[in-house]
């Protein structure tokens, strides 16, 4: 499989949200929220953006405190993480003012504990430095953030990551696979995966193994009886069934 990043419709929408935040009118509205169900590629997309834009990418954990957030941020920034919380805050503030480095926070749901203490600390930084902050979480985070008016008002864009469309799956096959994948197999991948990108990539790997043996475009009939992907929700393998006559 090719080692490339595919800009599907979710990434295009995400980039539009980031551009909106960067051209904001209210300078304190520096946040972008990415949300959606598992399997839609949130982490992969924001990680790619972080690398391309020299952002610091942190993954929140259960029990995260403001001080733990600051220590992890300092470690990623390569600055001294010791001393009092106030001293650490001042050092980080100077770093962010001087560099303008964007922040990417994955698993934002864990930042909402203790009356959103971690998000309030991040707001302290972003309000003072106008730093772009991108958060990612699941659907449950929307109403939780909405309860905190001062935080919610800082979002310039909210981007929903959706399950991959048929066009997205076709694009993934075209740009990732090292063999040609026929339209009927692309449609099967889309149907069986439910649009979950991880499952589509698993199916592409199967198609590649078949294509290396057959030497041509891989169609649905070439994969009959093979496990195309594993459905983690039903705990069942998705096996390609024999085609009906005339299909």
From TrEMBL:
Residues 28-139 form the ORC1/DEAH AAA+ ATPase domain. It comes from the Bacteria. Pfam families: AAA_22. InterPro entries: AAA_22, ExeA_AAA_ATPase_DNA-bind, P-loop_NTPase. GO terms for molecular function: ATP hydrolysis activity. This is ORC1/DEAH AAA+ ATPase domain-containing protein. It comes from Propionivibrio dicarboxylicus.
């Amino acid at each position: 499989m090719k080692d490339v990043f595919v800009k599907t419709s979710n990434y295009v929408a995400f980039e539009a949200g980031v551009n909106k935040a960067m051209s904001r009118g209210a300078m304190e509205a520096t946040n972008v929220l990415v949300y959606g169900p598992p399997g839609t590629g949130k982490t992969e997309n924001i990680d790619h953006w972080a690398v391309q834009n020299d952002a610091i990418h942190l993954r929140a954990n259960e029990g995260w405190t403001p001080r733990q957030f600051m220590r992890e941020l300092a470690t990623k920034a390569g600055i001294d993480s010791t001393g009092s919380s106030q001293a650490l805050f001042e050092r980080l503030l100077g770093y962010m003012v001087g560099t303008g480095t964007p922040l990417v926070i994955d698993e934002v749901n864990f930042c909402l504990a203790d009356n959103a203490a971690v998000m309030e600390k991040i707001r302290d930084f972003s309000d003072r430095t106008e730093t772009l902050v991108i958060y990612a979480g699941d659907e449950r985070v929307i109403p939780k953030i909405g309860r905190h008016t001062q935080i919610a008002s800082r979002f310039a864009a909210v981007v929903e990551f959706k399950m991959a469309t048929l066009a997205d799956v076709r694009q993934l096959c075209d740009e990732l696979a090292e063999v040609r994948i026929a339209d009927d197999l692309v449609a099967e991948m889309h149907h069986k995966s439910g649009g979950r990108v991880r499952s589509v990539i698993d199916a592409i790997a199967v198609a590649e193994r078949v294509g290396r043996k057959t030497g041509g475009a891989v169609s649905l009939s070439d994969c009959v009886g093979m496990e195309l992907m594993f459905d983690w929700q039903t705990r069942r393998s998705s096996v390609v069934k024999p085609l009906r006559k005339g299909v």
